[in-house]
Structures are given as structure tokens and as C-alpha cells.
Amino acid sequence: MQTVSPSGPLYVHRLRFTRLTTVLAFVLACIFVLSGCTSSAEVVDKDKGIAAEQPNIIWLMSEDISTDLGCYGFPDVRTPNLDALAAQGVRFENAFVTNPICSPSRSAMMVGAHQVKTNTHHHRSNREVPLSAPYVPFTKLLRDVGYTTVLGHHGVRGKGRKTDVNFKHKPIGPWDGTTEFGLFDKFDTFTAADQPFFAQIQLNVTHRGDWWEEVSQQAADRHDPAEVTLPEYMADDPVVRKDWARYLDQLEYMDGEVAMIRQELEEKGLADNTIIIFIGDNGRCNIRGKGYLNDPGLHIPLIIYDPRSSGARAQVRSEVVSATDITASVLQYAGAELPAFLTGQPLQSEGFDREYVYAARDLWDEIDEKSRAIVSKDWKYIRNDMPDVPYDAHQAYLEFYRPAVQAMRKLNEAGKLTPVQALFFQPNKPAEEFYDLANDPDELNNLANQPEYAEQLDQFRRRAERYDREMAPVSDVYNPVHASAVDVLNHIKTKHPDLHQQMLDGEEIGYKKAANLYKEYKKKSDD
């Protein structure tokens, strides 16, 4: 097979062709559905047809995205490959991560147990601390039943090898939890000889990075900032519009990578026995998104395509789903043992039953925080135990990668934001938040202080307290990694004020460039 890099012009031409073919596939799938008895928008019961043979499983994890795909009704974006995957499989409307930050969220999914319970809830912490017994990564359980476990992919941007979990580990090697801490068997490639195989592939183009402008410039059909549709809580400003348009370009690049992987499965004769699971690792990296317990931070896309099961086509499931349920589902698909420590349930099980997701926000780099949330289909409760920490906490790393925040700060200081837009820039957070999701999906009207909701609020408050007890950490070891972005930002402020002013004006100077300037300065100082 010819490997096509999504960064070159050949990929652009292939992407155009792929879009045409996948749109045709999507149309044909819709015709098939409409000619049968199941509507593509119908909410149906859970799939019960699971083949006895061990399937291959590919877990595609797009970084930092909310439900920002065409099949979820997200405006302006073109994601024909994922839309077709949803039309051929099952799309989950109410899937949520247990933490809106990458490493705690990934820790929960890698173990299948809530990150607070396993003491992996603080971002970039306990990296040299082994998991407490009886917890093990789910890839170890897959290996026990004969799976080859693969990390990354040779054709995606950056090779997709990210692990980023908050316990002692290394990407490749055996696991025993005491002297060996390898999570996967091999990098980048799956073959027929590896069957049954499990591959976890990170699609990192959607993560904030210095590549965004280049990817956007090379897009076959770039988004015009003047034409994008902004949420109500985002200011209508040229910097904000440009940032939003570039995000849409990253989503479409990522959609092309999904097509490339599916094409490889076809060419290798593996497509008919390979389950594809597509999710986001946490919400989009923008205001109210990544790092926050609001909907754009917790609500993720989840699509499962099982080619072996003709009954699971064009389904939409509305149950509330936790990211740890996906881990349990992978284990059940593989025929692996479901350990008692799991806090997730297999989605394909007839007994699947979840009403709530318990989510948490804790340390993120240098910003200490403690907030908890209960999410149901219709309601959201948030308890902010540190209300004095504002939403806009000026976290050093984010200063390099959130031009919309920089622009809206200036507008807020000038009194030019609407009340809804200004919420993010208040000096404190409310101690409690309570939202009616059916009528307020953007979570803009806090009902916590309205007397008519006092009884419902108390029910969710008590439920959060019960989860606090159930998910109490197994240990109190706390070894966070120093956030080097703090040093880099201080260096830019003091030694490169011109670059810092560009940041304040909503330009991305590039964290990598800034970090290299700091390293050069440190090296000269040390010499």
C-alpha cells in the first residue's frame, strides 16, 4: 500500500477523492436504512449480536474535540468519513469523559476505573508511582486472552503514539505492575499475522499545536472565518473567528485520517472482522471546553462500528455513557475477563444501565483546582470546591494556545462582551451550578440559586456526595510534575516583550518556538 502523508499535496488530492467516495457510501447507507425498518435517526435498543470469534479492535482517539462532527449536527464542518462510519454503526448522543483534561481522562480509560478512585486524577502526576493493586491497564487483560496490542499508526500526523497516563508506565514492553510497566506490544502497524489485534491510535492534529496554521493553509477547502458559526458564548471578533475556522480545518484533516485507516483495513483484508471505536479524549481546547466541567469539556463523540453485526447499523443511542464504559466494552468484545475494579459497564451488554456520569476536575499544570460534576441526560450539577480559582486562571501553557481567550479578555476589560460571554471572565466561580440541559444545552443559565429548583438541586448534591465516597482515592500519594510552561512564559514576558505583546494581541507565537528560546537562554546562563 502506498502511504500518503496528510501533510503533502498528494494527500489533498486523495482527500478530495475520499470525500466523494465516502459521501456516496453515506448516501447508499442511508438508502439501505430507509428501505428497511430502521431510521438513521431512530433511537433503538442495544445491539445483541456479538460473534464468537475474537475481533480485531481499533480505538481511534481524536484529541481535544467535543461533539464537533457533521453527524452530531455541528455547523460548518465537513466530516464525511466519520458521518459514514456513524451511518454504518452506532452513534452515542450522551457520552462523557470523567475528566476534561487529557491525562486524567486517559488514565481512567486505560484502567477502566474512575481516575479519582485510582489516584490518577491530577494532571501529569505520579508518573513514577505504580498503580495500586488490583488495578491494571486493560491492555494487559487483552494480552492475557491472546491479543497483540499496537500503539499508534505509521500514517497519521505525529504517528499517534501518545499514552499520557498518571501512573508508572512505558509505551512498549511487558507488564507485571512491579518491575515491568509496558502498555503495548508494538508501535504503528497491524497485520493479518497480529490477529487478533487491538490498536489504539491517537489522532493528534486536533490537539492545540504549532502545526495548526500549516494544516489550515494546506487544506483543500479552507474555512472562511467570516462564514463560521460561533456559539453564543464566543465573541464575534476577527481573532475568535480565525481561531474557530482553523479548528474546523483540523477536524476535516482528522476525518481524512480516518478514511486512510479504513482504506488500509480494506487493502489488508481485515475490514470484515475489525471493530472501529471513535471517541474524543476530552473536549475542544477553547473557552468552556478542555479543562472545564461544562458541556464542551466533557461531552465527546462516540461511534462504534462492528462489521460483524448487521443489526447494529445506523443506530442512535441516547443513554448516558461514561468513557470507562468504552474500556469495559473493549474487554467484552475481546472475550476478556471483566475485573471487579471496573467502574464502567459494557455498552453491548443487555444489562447496560447508567443514569449518571461522575466527572472531576483537579490539578492542571500549575493551577490547583477541585470541582465535581454529575451529568444526566437532562441535568448537570457542578460543585466548585475552590470557587476563588476563576475559570480564566491565566494558566501558562494555555496562554500560548488560546487566542480567543486573549481577544475576549481585551473585550471584557473594555466592557464589550455580552453577559453570557463575560461569564468566563468573572473573578470567581459559583460554589454550585445547576443546569436544565433540555432547555439550556449551552449551560448559560445557572439555576442553583432559584428556589423552585432547590429540591432537585439537593438530590444532585447528595448524589455527588455519594460518588465522592464511592470513588475515594486508593492512596494519597501526590507527586505532580513541574509545569515548565510557567518558566517559558515568564521568560517570554521578561526577555521578549515583543513576542508577549503578540500573544496578548491574539497571535500564536508557538509554544515550541518559545520553549526553544528559553532553552537557549538557560544554556547560555549555565555556561
From TrEMBL:
Swiss-Prot/TrEMBL keywords: Hydrolase
Boundaries of every Sulfatase N-terminal domain copy: 55-336
Tagged with keyword Hydrolase: yes
Domain of life: Bacteria
Record's keyword annotation contains Hydrolase: yes
An annotated Gene Ontology molecular function: arylsulfatase activity
Matches recorded under Gene3D superfamilies: Alkaline Phosphatase, subunit A
PANTHER family, per the entry: ARYLSULFATASE FAMILY MEMBER, ENDO-4-O-SULFATASE
Recorded family membership: Belongs to the sulfatase family.
Name of the protein: Sulfatase
